[in-house]
Amino acid sequence: MAGGGDVQGGNKRKRDAPGKPSAGKGGDGMKRNKSYHAPAAPRGGGGGGGGGGGSAQPVTARDKRVAAKEMSESRKMKRKPNYNLDKELTVLWEKMRCHDVSKENRSKLVTEALRKMDGKYMEIAGSHVTARVLQTCVKWCSQPERDAIFVALQPHLLTLSRQKYAVFLVKKLVKLATKKQFAWFISSVHGKVASLLRHTIGAAVVDCAFQRATPPQRRSLLLELYSTELQLFKDLTEQKSCRLAHYNVFLVETISKLGLQKSSVRQYMTTIIQPILEKGIVEYSIVHTVLLEYLTIADKTSASDVIRQLIPHLTQGSAVIDGDELSAVPEVPTKTKAKKKRSSEPLLIRIMHTREGLKLGLACLKHGSVKDRKKIIKSLKGHIMKLALNDYGCLFLVCLLSIVDDTKLVTKLVIQELAKQLKQLVFDKNGRRPLLQLLRPLCSRYLPPADLACLNYSVHSLISKDEPSESATVNLESKLDAAADKELGGSDDKEHGGSEDTLVASDSKKDPFQRRHELLMKSDLSEALVQTCVENVGELLRTNFGKDVLYEVAVGGKDNVLDGITEQIHLLHDAIASDAARPKSEDIEHAFENFHSSRVIRKMILDCPAFAATLWEKALEGKCELYADGYSSKVVAAYLESSDSKVKDLAKSELQPLVDGGKLKIPDHKATEKK
Question: Is there a contact between 277 and 306 (Cβ–Cβ < 8 Å)?
């Protein structure tokens, strides 16, 4: 009969619903109705519930919103003791951060905000709202006010460094600290550098201090990452006699000077680096330096393991927390991903702002497997131009074009993107370097010795004995010597390139010339490059960076790599000759009299007999006397300096009388050779 009782009770509730609730259920019903209507308006007398009683006052939607807002405000005031202060500071912050506010008004607003925050800096620094206010005040306040904030937060800086929102305030204080304050901060983090680097938030503070620090301060931050002794005993880290610019050499020197065991240092650094790699905290320059140091002493297994763990982090986007600090993370659960936005830009792009980041990228590219290289190239899709225009990113592209054997993949993802922006690339200092690498690899005229040495970077423990590392190193040293000789006044032969070097990379088997030929000719990049040069020939001749690309295309590149498009190159020769054949005018400087164009045309005459003949027929024949002085005389005299007998015979009858009459002077080194 229990079932029947339940049914009867249900029917009874239905019958009682329209009227006055029963005594057993009326209390709950009244509570529900009261909680719903009480925020809107007070009840009249009478005890009826939420039925059809006529004593209830009508409540509008606006009244409900106002009442809900008041209740929310009251709850926030109970939950947050500084709620009213937060609102006042937010109003001041909105005024002081405007760009059009005057300096005097901003100073008054900052002073007023600091007066309200006095004594509550620690609580304010941890809030996601007021932390921004305090950070803005630190940026615009006077030095005495900034000193007062630093003193107030001085005991808590390391604690704040690990907090999600306070970390930006600590970074701002570190950047704007005086020398004395910064020295105190460096000493305060001694013994805690390793733990901060393993913290996803605290690592940003250590990197900020590392970037601002002097070389001795940087060494003090790095030394305690080598062994436990250097972390415990601060006196051991003070090495005034060790002044080495390269940190990888500094580690080896430190091990030998302090008598440390290489195996123990390697083991201790492994315990520090492993959590950093597992958490994906690899976007900071101090981490790049530590990893490069570790690779100098790591054995083959350890070095391979580091590179294997690095590549997934470098090829995927980074998590953005509140749009402020970027931190690369490994694969995380779906719920965590939903709370974090991901940047489409791979971390590999953003570590190219330092030479250490470049070396780390080169190590992954050179010593990774074929599959790893494909993964790296695919991650760069859509970001090739950003790399090409970057100081160090262009060198990464140079290495990529020199060692990757899969030319179809490189053509699809790299070459095609470069071909769309050729005009911008040929005029840019960095953008032209990948193009010049295909035309004349590792030429000391286009790559300074420091960049050549960086491109030759490799992890010694990962270079197998059968790879030509020694020959490549010898070739690089000869290249650096040639560059030094050129700076001291070397000959033109050294200026024109020297011998080709081969970058060392595992699993690269394709012939370098074949790789260059496939990237240039099969991708139609060569034709697009020639067409760009023809369309912009006048501007390219007269610019410092553009003339180099124009020269290499006009002479056909090294080893005549552009042999398949000879007709298009002849059209380029005609375009250059037509520009030089124009009469002198005040609007545009003549090609023979411009500093840059006169020199590049002279080199083309010396190195390309076909161009020399075209230029003579269109621009110089019968007009040599007009160009016998100034910069243009170098162009005319180049015909007599040419090693090609046909070029000499072409101009000798007209130029020799000018030389005999003293109107045309041959350069001294050629005159000496004739004597």
Answer: yes
